[in-house]
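Tutorial handout. Part one gives the primary structure; part two gives the three-dimensional structure as tokens.
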Amino acid sequence: SEVVEHLLTNIYRSFDYRQESAIYDQLAIGVTGDQLTEIYLGQRRALELENRGGARARVENVEVEAIETVNPDGEGAHVHARWNVSGSVNHFGHTHYRQNQYRALVSFGIEENSWKILNIEILDTRRLY
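Part two.
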């Protein structure tokens, strides 16, 4: 649970950066391979929308609610995880506070002597408020 929460928090913290190189470097700390590319490109699209007057999201908290299954795999694991993300969305001069819950299959392993996410498959997303 601690490893997954740390890795997910790193992903969301990368959203705090504005420069592409800083975003990529922050993501690369805890994500690798195709998943790194996919998250980075999604982040880039979000920044482009924001620069055209779209909403600006700010993540304040990431909390793993449950690790429902763990399937060890060599030096890593595949887990069925559920986590909540709390934060705010700013647009058109006002702020909405949100909390979303995600349920996903997360694969992670050791690369370059640290834990990294290899793949995330989102199974369900719900807005809690």
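Part three, for discussion. The mean pLDDT is 91. The beta strands are 56-73, 76-91, 94-111, 114-127.
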